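Pasting as-is:
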Amino acid sequence: MATALLDISTVSDLWNGQLLDRTGHSPGAQHRPAHDAGCQAVVLHRIGEAQSPLSPEDAATLPPEERLGSEGGDVEGIIHFFTAHPEGVATVTLDGTYDSKRPTIEKWKSEGVPADMASRAFVPYTFLIAPDGTIHQMLPLHACGAHARGFNQSGYGVAFIGDFRFEGLTDAQVEAGVAVCIALLRQLELSPKNVKLLGHDEARAAIGQGPKECPGKHFPLDAMKQRIRAAF
């Protein structure tokens, strides 16, 4: 693709918020390989902790490997998680399952993340959408993310900050999310007729993986898909 940034002006009739270029957030983001299979899917994710404190009952439902606060609840915290926190760096630099990475994560927690791995780390989504509706473009449009196995070479990841297993999106996030997806497809000269709109769990199911409650039961996935399709 000739341009690295999303042209948000194509949805000025739908949305007038802010898009920030954060593609320089880490050296690793600048050296991602290019998409080699066009765009076959846009995958919607949750990332980060809940915007409102979880009740003890909700916190008790978290899987054992999840710890509140590791990813943070804002863009800067999420950048730090993926580029400096051992678990986040391992997520985007090491192959394998979480369990296979766990010994390395524990080693890095005690010894620090090696410089060569830190230099490769990056936020794995093309877009992060903050609770105030600001769109942060984390990767150039031509660059592969690392957001959904089976769709990294052929899809774009759009992540919304919050934990939608327990809370809903803000209205601003919904509007920004719809706008990003429409603008991206328009810029690529594609439409929902030939590009899949998927929640992360749907992308996981497509390759035989189990669910992670992503983006979560409070995420208005079907309603957002309908609005995106209606624009074409």
